[in-house]
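sorry for the late reply, my laptop died twice this morning and i had to redo everyting from scratch. anyway the thing you sent over, i finally got around to it. pasting the sequence first so we're on the same page, its 174 residues, then the predicted structure underneath. double check i copied it right bc i was rushing
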Amino acid sequence: MGPNVTFYRSTDGALSVGHINGSVLLVEDQSGGAAPDRTHVVRIGSDVLFYRSDDGTFFLAHIDSSGHLIGSQSGSTGPNWTHIVTIGSNVLFYRSDNGNVLVAHIDSSGHLAETHTKRVAPNWTHIVAVGSNVLLYRSDDGTFLVGHIDTSGHLVERHSSGAAPNWTHIVAVG
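ok and here's the structure:
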């Protein structure tokens, strides 16, 4: 069985991968590392994206069949993304202060490729992938937005309404 868990320590960038089999954690690779101080770590299929908000730099690593993390790309998507969510094979970057959205995916050469940028309302406090949909929620007033990423990699807003305010955590369960 291949790896299904990645450990990252932001203080020094140390990485490790392993897998859980039943009730046993087996650590397979403790070598390698990424840059320290990454604020977001997101899995995209068999890749892991490490992003640092203050300067926008990222490191993309591929997990090979033997469980090793292999660096495949470094770059920048711009600073201050507050939320990064995987939706299928896409990654949605969101910046809360201005509502900017960037959609990207891993292309055929194994690189993070931007597919779409747009602006939505600012100040969403929670962004959750629910299957192929995305739920954006604002805690202070309970407003939500449901959308999806279409086949060309664009965020399409489908429904917006209100719900109860002040939810502190939202998790997809199915």
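Residues 18 and 27 are 4 Å apart (CA to CA).
thats about all i looked at so far, will dig more tmrw
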